[in-house]
Amino acid sequence: MENLKLRLQTILYYNEVENLEKSLASVAKAVAVSREKDGVITHVDVCYGDASAEPILTEDKVAELNSKYGEYITLEYMFFGFNSGTSKGQNVMFESCKADYLLAMNPDVILCPEFFLEMMKPYLERDDVGMVEAKQCPLEHPKIFDPKTGEEPWGAMACVIIPCKVFAQLGGLDEKNFFLYCDDVDFSFRLRLNGYKVIYQPRAFVYHAKRVDSKGGVEPTSAELYYSAEAALLMAYKYSDDRRLKRFLELFEKGSEQQRKAADEFYRRKENGLLTERLDKDHKIASFTEWGYSENRY
């Protein structure tokens, strides 16, 4: 595997240009290190999909960034003109993708210098890998993984690498059901249903900026509270867990404003025949816990 083509896709939404440039600089550095150490990634095509109401980047700024980092990356900028959410945005960008591998990551992620060397190792060593996930710092989801193989139940798409042929095989992300949350969990479960493995690669660490509260926890927005509740219901339905679905509906109907709205949306979809096909009826893949989507290691 030499000189593989890799495309980085990132959804923008009112991001600060200064922070985008910090992320791009880390990508360029990681490519440079990969070249120096005979890695398989020697250039990265970066595609920014902007879901903001107004364009974040001008043509001049894109040209400036390409001039500054062009030895290592090529930047393409797409202004959607609508709020795509994460799944639809990734799918729209993927329509023009001609690479071998897709790096899906958040715009506020900064890569470690040896990122590509570590992230590509599972693909060099085995042929059943469908997703490789990086370690996020300072906060990450504490889901379990096998310390010997790196196998885990699902990968957080804040920073993952996926073979493009596999992404296409699965039809991309489920944009009809998951606007902002759980598109990565759903994609991971579908990968595993199709015989692929999800691998956690802790030596490929990245910095991922997070809003935290006074107790050190992540501080969600109102939109995040709504879409996480909606996703919880749709995941329970899609992966055939009626007991979980019933419990969540009962809780959400009496819960917060966002939870009540999520329950109402689920019933609307049900009444209009808009619910998705049900999967994993034998419960072999979906790893639901009381509230989450996998057992945690801490």
Structure description:
- The chain is an alpha/beta fold and 298 residues long.
- It has two domains: 6-208, Spore Coat Polysaccharide Biosynthesis Protein SpsA, Chain A, CATH 3.90.550; 220-298, no CATH class.
- It is built from ten helices and eight strands.
- The protein has helices at residues 17-36, 59-69, 85-94, 115-119, 121-125, 164-169, 183-193, 222-238, 242-253, 257-271, and strands spanning 6-12, 44-50, 73-79, 101-105, 109-111, 129-137, 159-163, 197-208.
- Strands 3-2-1-4-7-6-8-5 form an eight-stranded mixed beta sheet.
- Helix 8 runs parallel beside helix 10.
- The longest helix is centred in the N-terminal third of the chain and has 20 residues, at 17-36.
- The radius of gyration is 19 Å and the shape is globular.
Count of the separate structural domains: 2
Give the averaged pLDDT, no decimals: 95
Runs with pLDDT <50, length 5+? none
Q: Which percent bin holds the helix content?
A: 25-40%
Please compute the radius of gyration using only Cα atoms. 19 Å
Strand order of the largest sheet: 3-2-1-4-7-6-8-5
* CATH fold-level topology of the largest domain: Spore Coat Polysaccharide Biosynthesis Protein SpsA, Chain A
- The total of beta strands comes to 8
Please indicate the percent range of residues in DSSP E strands (runs of 2 or more).
15-25%
Assign an overall shape.
globular
CATH level 1 class label of the largest domain: Alpha Beta
> Could you state the order of secondary-structure elements as H and E?
EHEHEHEEHHEEHHEHHH
- Rounded to the nearest angstrom, the distance between the terminal CA atoms is 37 Å
Main pleated sheet: 8 strands, mixed
CATH superfamily name of the largest domain? Spore Coat Polysaccharide Biosynthesis Protein SpsA, Chain A
- Mind telling me which CATH architecture of the largest domain this is? Alpha-Beta Complex
Structural class based on helices, strands and sheet pairing: alpha/beta
